[in-house]
Amino acid sequence: MAAFVWGQKGSKREAMTEPIMKRAKGDGVDIQLALWEGEEERDTVFCIHGLTANCRSWDRIAAALAPDYPVLAMDLRGRGLSDKPPKGYSVAQHMRDIACVLEDQELQQVTLMGHSLGAFTSLAFAARYPRLIKKLILVDAGGRLTKIQWDNIEMAIKPSLARLGQTFPSFDDYTEPLKQAPFLQPWTTFLDTYFRYEMEEVEGGLRSRTEGAHMLEEISNIRQFDAPSFYSKIECPVLILRAPHGILSDDDIVLSEEAVEKMLQEISHVRRLDCEGTNHYSILFGAHRERDQAIRSFLDT
């Protein structure tokens, strides 16, 4: 179960907690899951990570929710310890995997939470399988993006893509450039654990388990994703968590104000929170009391 450390003046902050790792059946592949146990009478919060991420990207939020709420996060196919077929990296395929995992784990209804690519996938899944989703949390994605916006975002995430396929002598060599990235400040044990999880030993050192070619296929497919076409089909309550700052500049904000306004107009039963001081990464990896309170309040409503 999740643990907490009590700081000065009785403030509560998250402590690192190791989840229970388990396997599940996806759509023709085996999927790795991370489970943070919670109260049995509460609905499971099922988490879908971003493009090059993995299930351990949810450690910070899971620590803020467990042991009250059970949290279950999956490695999408091609990431972490899930199977890595040569093709099949798209929102449509991820949706099929999620449906199979929910059936395999005998979960009849969950709160679905997704970040970045995971938010687009969660949006489409909630529209396609409304009976399986009780509530939906979209973390800094889910809005329409223009070609120019996609181009700017691709440029911003180049450092994240560049590490894929490279072999590094040690973990310190692997993380040294990442520790200098402005969008990953401050570096924490949550980030350290996240990047250690994605590494595998190979001849000559360590490399990411994620294949660059798979991510290029994913990017090509996600650029065609028509988010607004799903808005009117969402039947459950929705919470939008938005990072007001870009990855490297204001030109690469993933969820723009204009996009959020359209979501608020066209999605029923929706609320938003701008997580002040955050960017596309720190909204997930950083400490943020208002974010955690908003999620808890939304789950309890």
CATH architecture: 3-Layer(aba) Sandwich
Largest sheet at a glance? Answer: 8 strands, mixed
The total strand number stands at: 12
Q: Supply the number of helical segments.
A: 12
Which sequence of strands runs across the widest sheet?
Answer: 3-4-6-5-7-8-11-12
pLDDT under 50 segments (min length 5)? 1-13
Overview of the structural elements:
Strands 3-4-6-5-7-8-11-12 form an eight-stranded mixed beta sheet, sandwiched between helices. A two-stranded antiparallel sheet has the order 1-2. The protein has one domain: Rossmann fold (3-Layer(aba) Sandwich), CATH 3.40.50.1820. The protein has 301 residues and is α/β, with parallel strands linked by helices. The chain has helices at 59-65, 91-104, 117-128, 147-156, 158-162, 171-179, 189-197, 212-222, 228-231, 257-266, 282-285, 289-300, and strands at residues 4-6, 12-14, 20-25, 30-36, 45-48, 71-74, 110-115, 133-139, 199-202, 205-208, 238-242, 270-274. The radius of gyration is 18 Å and the shape is globular. The model is unreliable at 1-13 (pLDDT under 50). The chain is built from twelve helices and twelve strands. The longest helix has 14 residues, at 91-104.
Write the layout of secondary structure elements.
Blueprint: E1 4-6, E2 12-14, E3 20-25, E4 30-36, E5 45-48, H1 59-65, E6 71-74, H2 91-104, E7 110-115, H3 117-128, E8 133-139, H4 147-156, H5 158-162, H6 171-179, H7 189-197, E9 199-202, E10 205-208, H8 212-222, H9 228-231, E11 238-242, H10 257-266, E12 270-274, H11 282-285, H12 289-300
Parallel strand pairs: 5-6, 5-7, 7-8, 8-11, 11-12
Antiparallel strand pairs: 1-2, 3-4, 4-6, 9-10
